[in-house]
Amino acid sequence: MKIITENNNIIISSCSNFDLSQTFECGQCFRFEKIEDGLYSGVANGRLIKIKQDGDTVTLYDVNEQEFDEKWRSFFDLDRDYGAIIKELSFDSIIKAAIKAAGGIRILKQDGWEVLCSFIISQNNNIPRIKKIIASLCMLLGEEISDGVYTFPSAERVVKAGVEGIAPIRSGFRAKYIIDAAQKVFSGEINLETLAELEYSLAKKELMKIKGVGEKVADCTLLFGFGFCEAFPRDVWVKRVIEKYYEDGFTPGYFGKNAGIAQQYLFYYERSIGKNTKA
DNA sequence: GTCCAGGCATGCA
DNA sequence: TGCATGCATGGA
């Protein structure tokens, strides 16, 4: 991997195990959209960013070196050796096939509060609608940083809006969960600043104090927002994979300390099969 | 009209 | 501890 700055763009070349479309379309984030082939735009780290991939070259537009080092390097998880992880994980034919299909996924290090809130919204819901609800939450309570572009609202803003206040986003029964999460985060009852320092099981317990946060939402939050790669969210797709291919041979801990990354490969893989075989 | 969607809270055995 | 059911909403 080589990184240079050119015309206030960051150009990353020889970038292995990094595929933008897999990374943005594996369901870990909800605020990035494809503008054209290989070009994505979205809001993260409090700003709008455009990013493009051409072969193994990735360009971040309008980003200087300092901002890249402070924010985007960790956001795209560029310092993790995915090659080594893939090698370690390639111990059965199923995960091997999943890696073949999804080995370019990077686990994005997103804002913890945003991830928590997003995955509360995700429950018993479909991805297009999850995106819609999040977009309208941002428009309703976020900060407009440029024309029609909004940041994700703070927990404080959400608490102050209340269940009635967020009614326009039409999140249904999840509204009370969103408010409970915002209340606990804003009050400090749950401290997201120090959550990453806890042991995985303790961090998970903390998040599950929130109404509407069960094992799956907690695991997604820990994996996508707090760097806990051992978190293995069991959603319907992954449960399907386990039942279909592993039967009884699957135990907690099967994928080890990078179970979360394996989970994303399997999730993407199983969904892509569905898409390709739909006559 | 019916079913489903990156689940969870609740009640009951 | 484990299992069935309801839940808001919108698209297929």
Number of helices: 12
Briefly note the CATH topology name of the domain at 112-225. Endonuclease III, domain 1
Task: Report the major sheet.
Answer: 6 strands, antiparallel
Please give the share of residues in helix. Answer: 40-55%
Q: How does the helix and strand content classify structurally?
A: alpha+beta
The counted number of beta strands is 8
CATH arch. level architecture of the domain at 112-225 = Orthogonal Bundle
What does the overall shape look like?
globular
In round numbers, the mean pLDDT is: 96
Strand order of the largest sheet: 1-2-6-5-4-3
CATH homologous superfamily classification of the domain at 112-225: Hypothetical protein, domain 2
In percent, how much strand structure appears in the residues?
Answer: 5-15%
What is the CATH domain class of the domain at 112-225? Mainly Alpha
Radius of gyration: 19 Å
Q: Which residues sit in consecutive blocks of at least 5 with pLDDT less than 50?
A: none
Q: What is the first-to-last residue Cα distance?
A: 39 Å
Listing every helix as H and every strand as E from the N terminus to the C terminus, the arrangement reads EEHEEEEHHHHHEEHHHHHH
